[in-house]
Structures are given as structure tokens and as C-alpha cells.
Amino acid sequence: MLSAMKLMLTLFLSGIVACYGGNANYNSILLVSFDGFRADYLKNYRLPHLQEFIEDGVLVEHVTNAFITKTFPNHYSIVTGLYEESHGIVANAMYEEDTKKKFSELNDTDPFWWNEATPIWVTNQQQENRRSAAAMWPGTDVKINNTIPHFFMKYNHSVTFEERMENITMWLNNSSPPVTFATLYWEEPDASGHKYGPGDKENMRKVLEQVDNHIGSLTYKLKALGLWENINVIITSDHGMTQCFPHKLIKLDDCIGRGNYTLVDTTPVAAILPKNNKKYVYNLLKNCNTSMKVYLKEEIPDRFHYHHNKRIQPIILVADEGWTIVQNGSLTKCKYFHPSCSWWLILLNFYFYC
């Protein structure tokens, strides 16, 4: 069954390529991400609007994420089809020693970081009579390869889902030339998963009900505007999440002085830039905690596809599931994405018609 689903997804993507070749009666694509949506939320919670969506389309149950499974890297992998070492967004926080430039979630709009790849909204808009639209998908408010979506919203986490949805559906409905590719991003259930932990069933039930209602509102809006029969909707996520615990802390200060390194990116996959002797720093960290794997950049397993980019730091730390890497102190935010087994949830609403 899973092989058949993968084949259907392959055919769907092939249909996009073929249909963009010149048929004027093409369908638009709306790509929606609910950040941090664990695959088993579908089984463990009542989500009637999402279940109705699945019944009308196709569910792909397991798609392995790119390593590392964090928000910026995986969202860029989704829209470029590339591993992180190839598209250049290798972490949520980055530092490039040659240029001394820094990237973070609050400092992400320099095209320098994004120009190593071409996302699908750029490719779409480079075609004749095609426009792209975006509601806060990572990177869509940046001029990548000298192109920005014709319609976009500058990222602001305080903007409601309803406002984002209203903009996207308006652009899909009213643009000429038409919007043929659009993205819509929402921070939940990731934000609540970090706040409460994914194991907090009562609080997660409430936020997942809100997510489900958002899906219902989006479906209703697309139908009300007469777009439903002419649009392909993909609902996905960037990573999963697991519970972590206050007694499962890996304290770097117990193993190495902070003067020996810079912590570029944090748990559960932490990036270390040694200040002097790389081997010395590596050896101290290697013996720090049995619940943390320590890799020199050149020794990172090939299956992670995480070698060939100068933005990848010389030493990478990977916490075991449920463990958190800190410099010192207590656990203030539960944050863990498994490096190889978090999943995209992908739902295809309609077959692609050319």
C-alpha cells in the first residue's frame, strides 16, 4: 500500500511538470504546513476536518525528513527537493566563518543564505503567465535569486491563521496572471508542543482541535470561492516531536569550558565551532555523555547527507531521543526532533488534471 502511495505521489509531481508545459487550463497548487505535526496525532486525536480531507484524497503515512529535522532546513528541503548540504539552509542558526555572517530565526532575510538553491515559488514565477503567493512560509519574504513571490506576507508570528488564509485565498481567486503556486505556514502545533510537551494530552488536544478547525475553515473558504475543484492542496509538516525530561540533560559545562568553543546551533542537534584546537574540543565532547553522539564534520554518517557545505560546523552533537543538550542549568523548553525518523504528513486533495 505504501509503495502505491509513493507511486501516486510521484505521478502527481510528474503531472505538475507536464502540465506546466503550455496547457492553459491548469490547476493551482496550495502547499500548507502545520509546523511540528507528529504523524501519530492523526491516530491519537479526533480531527474530523482532517479526516474528511484524507477521505477525499491520498494519505502518505511516512516520509523521512532531511537531517537535521528543524524548521528552516526542512521547510527549504520541501520546496527545493534538496538535502540541506545542497540547499545551504543547514540549521536554524548558522555562522559562516569566511564572511563572518550570522543567520538566526530573527535574522533570516539576507539572500546570501538562500541563494544556493531555487525554491519552487521562484521556478513557478519564472514561467510565462505564472504567479506565486506566500503566507509566511520560511524564505518567502526573501529575494531569492532576484525573485520574490508576486504576493507575499513578511513574517510576523502574531498574524492570525485567518488573516493568512484570507490573503492566500484572495490572491488565488483574483490574480491575473493567475497564482499557480501558493504556500501557507502556521506555527502550530509546534509552538504548543515545545511549551507543554507532546505528551500533554489535554493541552495538545486543544491546539490540535484549533489546527483541525483551521483546515475546516480553509476547505470551506476554497469551496465558497469556487476554487475547490481547480486546486491541488497539499498539507504537510516539517518534523515530528518527542517528549523530553528534566532529568535527561547533557550539560556541556560539565565537560568543557565555554572559552574553547562557540555554540552556533542548539539541541537536539548542536553545532560546535572550536576556537582553537579542534581535536582537543572533540575529545572532551566525545567523552561527555553516553546519550550524545559526537561527530567531526567529515565523519558524519553518509546517510545524513550532511557533509558538503561550509556552513556545517566542524563538530556536530546529536542527543539521543528524549535527551536535551544544554550548556548548564535546567530544562526550560522541551525540544526534540529525531534526526532520522520524524515524518512529513502529506495529504493530496485531488489528482492533478492536465
TrEMBL record:
SUPFAM superfamilies, alphabetized: Alkaline phosphatase-like
PROSITE patterns: PROKAR_LIPOPROTEIN
Its biological purpose: Hydrolyzes extracellular Ap3A into AMP and ADP, and Ap4A into AMP and ATP. Ap3A and Ap4A are diadenosine polyphosphates thought to induce proliferation of vascular smooth muscle cells. Acts as a procoagulant, mediating platelet aggregation at the site of nascent thrombus via release of ADP from Ap3A and activation of ADP receptors.
Superkingdom of origin organism: Eukaryota
Official protein name in the record: bis(5'-adenosyl)-triphosphatase
Stored Pfam families: Phosphodiest (PF01663)
Entry EC number(s): 3.6.1.29
Signal peptide limits: 1-19
Catalytic activity: P(1),P(3)-bis(5'-adenosyl) triphosphate + H2O = AMP + ADP + 2 H(+)
One cellular component (GO) term of this entry: plasma membrane
Encoding gene per record: ENPP4
Cofactor(s) needed for function: Zn(2+)
Similarity comment text for this entry: Belongs to the nucleotide pyrophosphatase/phosphodiesterase family.
Keyword terms: Blood coagulation, Cell membrane, Disulfide bond, Glycoprotein, Hemostasis, Hydrolase, Membrane, Metal-binding, Signal, Transmembrane, Transmembrane helix, Zinc
Location of this chain's protein in the cell: Cell membrane
GO biological process, one term: blood coagulation
Membrane topology: Single-pass type I membrane protein
Gene3D superfamilies: 3.30.1360.180, Alkaline Phosphatase, subunit A
Keyword set includes Transmembrane: yes
EC category name: hydrolase
InterPro entries per the UniProt record, alphabetical: Alkaline_phosphatase_core_sf, Phosphodiest/P_Trfase
The UniProt record lists the keyword Glycoprotein: yes
GO molecular function: bis(5'-adenosyl)-triphosphatase activity; metal ion binding
